[in-house]
């Protein structure tokens, strides 16, 4: 009994290694033991000492990252932001839609949105396009979507479907990323503490370091005088080096192909149905409108600046005004602003070839 009391009175003077040996032999009560870092930091909200192990319990993914990787995700560092972003992504609070909106807009102009049309819907698209532009439908039928993506993009833009199709493309991309984001982080970090002998009980929430593994860690990384937590943190930083990239690059590592195909196919199918209904309606697009659009696209592309001969002035075609079938355009004489105007196709061609007609 006297020896037992002596150990209890001097327990704070024991090294962590000595505490673990005594706990493992059931010579001291777990409630009498605490583990801190060398600078005295305690983790009472995370650590629970048992007779045979330490249990680490976390509230969320962010707390898990900050505890096991204190250097990587140190408060005030770049990693500090990353831990918060990773946590928001993991729990579905990050807005990938806003991150990717501008990219989707660029992808529309480059023709990538049109190229995302599911193969299963290409025959349906050809059947619809044939009603208003048989030549383009024939080209798509012979050569496929990609070689004709710019021409098809301009046609669908002129028919008023840029916003709808960009939305389909963007939603499919975002949902594919969101479907894969949790498995991505779990595959990367869930079992990361195993590099220092810590077992996973519940991913990002509950972990266990048994005393046998703790003794092995001390033998491998220390001399027996160090703090156990210091060795854990040191070992994690040393043995684990497969961290996620910066938050804005994470989306390039996450993509669930099945989700993308499902969302994309449903969205495209819905938009093509709407396009077909408007064409069949006969009133939504007048014959004059469709004819003007077809002729326009043999001369100009949408969303492309054309430099007028002999000048620095540029024009860009915005589309056809369905109320008067005139071409909407922008003209810029410098890089700071642009003026808007409308003209018939014939007038626009004449002005393109004769800059002085613009200079009024």
Give helix % range: 40-55%
Strand order of the largest sheet: 1-2-4-3
Q: What's the number of helices?
A: 15
Number of domains: 3
Element pattern in H and E? HHEEHHHHHHHHEEHHHHEEEEH
Query: Average pLDDT across residues?
Result: 90
Number of DSSP strand runs: 8
**Class by alpha and beta content:** alpha+beta
Low-confidence stretches: 1-7
Coarse shape = elongated
What does this 3D model show about the protein?
The chain is an alpha+beta fold. The chain folds into 3 domains: 2-91 and 182-253, no CATH class; 96-180 and 256-281, no CATH class; 295-357, no CATH class. It is 50% helix and 11% strand. The chain contains 15 helices and 8 strands. It has helices at 2-9, 16-24, 61-68, 78-90, 96-110, 112-115, 122-129, 134-143, 149-158, 162-189, 211-221, 228-239, 257-281, 287-296, 345-353, and strands at residues 47-49, 53-57, 199-202, 206-210, 305-307, 314-320, 327-332, 339-343. It is elongated and about 100 Å long.
């Amino acid at each position: 009994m006297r020896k037992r009391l002596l150990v209890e009175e001097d327990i704070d003077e024991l090294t962590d290694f000595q505490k673990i040996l005594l706990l493992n032999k059931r010579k001291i009560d777990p409630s009498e033991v605490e583990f801190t870092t060398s600078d005295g930091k305690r983790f009472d909200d995370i650590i629970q000492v048992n007779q045979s192990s330490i249990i680490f319990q976390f509230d969320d993914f962010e707390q898990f990252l900050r505890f096991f990787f204190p250097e990587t995700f140190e408060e005030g560092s770049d990693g500090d932001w990353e831990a918060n972003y990773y946590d928001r992504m993991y729990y579905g609070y990050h807005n990938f839609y806003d991150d990717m909106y501008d990219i989707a807009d660029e992808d529309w102009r480059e023709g990538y949105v049109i190229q995302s049309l599911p193969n299963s819907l290409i025959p349906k698209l050809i059947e619809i396009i044939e009603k208003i532009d048989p030549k383009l439908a024939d080209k798509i039928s012979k050569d496929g979507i990609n070689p004709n993506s710019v021409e098809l993009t301009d046609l669908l833009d002129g028919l008023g479907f840029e916003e709808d199709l960009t939305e389909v493309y963007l939603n499919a991309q975002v949902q594919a990323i969101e479907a894969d984001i949790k498995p991505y982080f779990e595959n990367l970090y869930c079992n990361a503490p195993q590099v220092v002998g810590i077992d996973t009980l519940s991913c990002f929430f509950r972990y266990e370091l048994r005393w046998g593994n703790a003794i092995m860690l001390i033998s491998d990384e220390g001399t027996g005088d160090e703090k156990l937590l210091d060795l854990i943190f040191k070992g994690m930083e040393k043995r684990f080096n497969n961290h996620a990239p910066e938050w804005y690059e994470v989306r390039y590592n996450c993509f669930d192909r099945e989700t993308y195909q499902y969302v994309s196919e449903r969205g495209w199918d819905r938009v093509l149905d709407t396009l077909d209904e408007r064409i069949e309606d006969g009133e939504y697009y007048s014959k004059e409108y469709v004819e003007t659009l077809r002729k326009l696209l043999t001369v100009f592309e949408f969303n492309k600046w054309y430099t007028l001969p002999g000048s620095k002035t540029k024009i860009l075609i915005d589309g056809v005004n369905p109320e008067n079938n005139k071409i909407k355009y922008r003209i810029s004489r410098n890089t700071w602003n642009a003026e808007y105007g409308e003209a018939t196709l014939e007038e626009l061609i004449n002005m393109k070839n004769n800059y002085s007609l613009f200079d009024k």
